[in-house]
Amino acid sequence: MICRLPKWIAFGKKLKIVDFKMKTERLPQWLKTNTFENLRDTKVLLRKRRLKTVCEEARCPNKGYCFNKPTATFMILGGSCTRNCGFCSVSHTGVQPVDASEPERVAEAALELCLKHVVITSVTRDDLPDGGAAHFAKTVLAVRRRLPQAVIEVLTPDFRGDINALKIVTESEPDVFNHNVETVPSLYSVVRPEADYKTSLTVLRNARELSKGKNIKTKSGLMVGLGESFDEVIAVLRDLRAAGCNYVTIGQYMRPKKSNLPVVQYVHPDIFLKYKEEAQLLGFEAVASAPLVRSSMDAFELNAGI
Question: I need a surface site. Which of 190, 229, 233, 250 has the fewest CB within 10 A?
Fold first, then answer.
């Protein structure tokens, strides 16, 4: 918990002032994860193929769990982002040239891991004319050639709302198009200062429209514990359904590095269950809502509606 925050914060009353300098207490028991020793094979393969994963770059607490399945979320377009979001630990200093061999290397790694669900994400590349959309499409097609039966999910940046970039990605026909709104609108100026909530909703809405006839599911996710209220989260869920989202994920924000935003509140698991119930009532086909849920965690199970 954080400095004995009042109970009304967790149950939906508006948090008017967010103090990001609050001192955090010990991590609650429900957020403590087991460590795994058997990660070497997956790591060796990733290094051999010269590939990055968001699992490692973003310091995900579920890395051991996912690598032991084995599964991984491939991060393409380099390891440095052109934006600097308050919650993210990915580097934002000096982008790399696009590696034309990367799509095939991702496909080879996915084949070697025998993946049934392949997740492809990227850093944001505002320096590229299409934001990296063509590279996404090439990676989807390369994986499809090697693993025709696999479910392919893309987790994309907002491409600055460029509908032509979205069209390039959707024409490669991934099974799931994912773009995370990350947080509630009132916190965007602190959490995602270089992004825009309405733009993210437009991306999801346009992806849905462009996917008609292609059977592509749309998905989004957000973190809690940054100072949002219960009612604000429910409002975001309503917006996502209105944008046509099929799937949604909700998880606890955990500070990856001291340079990132501190946690304002560790949300109790019971509240996550309430979020799930509300999302199901709104008509989402699949909902994952729990403290350790992350956008790509158990993506295969979520797509199956489990």
Answer: 190
